[in-house]
Amino acid sequence: MQLAQIAADLGLECLVPLEPEREVRGGYCSDLLSDVLAHTQPGDLWITHQRHLNVVAVGKLREVAGIVFARGLRPSPDVVARAQTERVNLFVSPDPAFEVAGKLYRALHP
Amino acid sequence: MRWWRADLHIHSTLSPCASLTMSPARILNEARRVGLDLIAVCDHNAAENGRYVRRLAGGAPVVLMGMEIQTAEEVEVLAYFTDEESPLLLQEELHRALPDIPCDPELFGDQVVVDEGGEIVRRVERLLLSPVSFTLADIVRRVEQLGGITIPSHVERLPGGLLAVLGLFPEGDWPVAVEIAPWTSLADACRTWPELRQRSIVRNSDAHYPAEIGRAWTEFRLASPTLDEIRNAFRNRDGRNLRPSREAKEEP
């Protein structure tokens, strides 16, 4: 399913809307970046509360389809700027992580 | 110049997760028993007990002021200071930046300031085992402003290890040195995290109970046991150097 469609279905706010046609294949929820490095798959939408600058590097390394900050948490401007440079898709959702994941699962497995 | 045996990460009665027997007197007895020349008491987001340990020690062992700060990212960082005022000032700043969760001793353990004579000076009401609202970058900068130094705690371990939480080192020169847990071999740590090879690696006991003091340490080659000399040892400068002990056996 394409990123733009997922973002619309889940009500995500795009912080750096770069690749609307990027294919979303799955999802992963974690705030521990070592765990994300070890277990995300390329094309996952990664849902997190972690807002350190390293999320961009980790998201890029693992080729995630995008990063969603849950519960309305906003990353600092340097995170957004880096994501723009590195071409990593960033989103904010007002929903808690559980609900973001639930909506994503329903969208991907109707 | 000589080798100083140091354990720069010991918890006391002020850490809810540490034993109530970790009074200044008991910490010093154990430190002397295992032959430590240099120690630091690093409680979670608190420095206060270090003052009493230092007064009671009378210079043997040498006591650095310290604390283990939990940042907003939930990364744990050890901070060291020469003077008493700076860490106590920082402690106030950190306590204002902690979530307002009271420490229930039944659930978390006691948080007590204990003086040289073993008397309870006060209880800290707010739970210290929580992240402050300052980011890792904020904390590193603030400690340096106050004349201190920071190294990340047990980087390869959860909870709180920098590499475990953030996956990679942040950009920039920091940290020059890192701590690894008492139980991880240097070879294993460097195999899992090759970027460790570019840093100085220290090991401390992270003792929460008296018997844990002495299970791990780092020897520093220094002209005198000061923060400036330790800074040089971290950078392997002017003949200053360090070597961590072998890993301890992990208790079941």
The gist of it:
The complex is a heterodimer of chains A (110) and B (252). Chain A is of the alpha/beta class and 110 residues long.
> What fold name goes in the CATH topology slot of chain B?
TIM Barrel
CATH topology of chain A, by name, is Udp-n-acetylmuramoylalanyl-d-glutamate--2,6- Diaminopimelate Ligase, Chain: A, domain 1
Strand count of chain B: 11
Radius of gyration of chain B, CA atoms, in whole angstroms: 17 Å
CATH class of chain A: Alpha Beta
Query: Could you give a short account of the major beta sheet of chain B?
Result: 7 strands, mixed
- Average pLDDT value of chain B? 97
Number of domains of chain B: 1
Oligomeric state: heterodimer
Q: Supply the helix-strand structural class of chain B.
A: alpha/beta
Describe what you observe in this structure.
The complex is a heterodimer of chains A (110) and B (252). By secondary structure, chain A is an alpha/beta fold. Chain A has a single domain, classed as 3-Layer(aba) Sandwich (Udp-n-acetylmuramoylalanyl-d-glutamate--2,6- Diaminopimelate Ligase, Chain: A, domain 1). A 5-stranded mixed beta sheet of chain A has the order 1-5-4-3-2, with helices on both faces. In chain A, strand 2, helix 2 and strand 3 form a beta-alpha-beta unit. In chain A, helix 3 packs parallel to helix 4. The longest helix of chain A has 12 residues. The relative contact order of chain A is 0.24. The model of chain A has no long low-confidence stretch (mean pLDDT 96). In chain B, helix 1 crosses helix 2. Chain B has one domain: TIM Barrel. The radius of gyration of chain B is 17 Å and the shape is globular. In chain B, the strands form 3 sheets. Chain B has a 7-stranded mixed beta sheet, with helices on both faces. Chain B has a two-stranded antiparallel ribbon with strand order 5-6. A two-stranded parallel ribbon of chain B has the order 8-9. Chain B has 252 residues and is of the alpha/beta class. Chain B is built from 8 helices and 11 strands. The model of chain B has no long low-confidence stretch (mean pLDDT 97). In chain B, helix 2 links the parallel strand 2 and strand 3. Classes of the chains: A alpha/beta (110), B alpha/beta (252). The interface between A and B is medium-sized, with 13 and 13 residues.
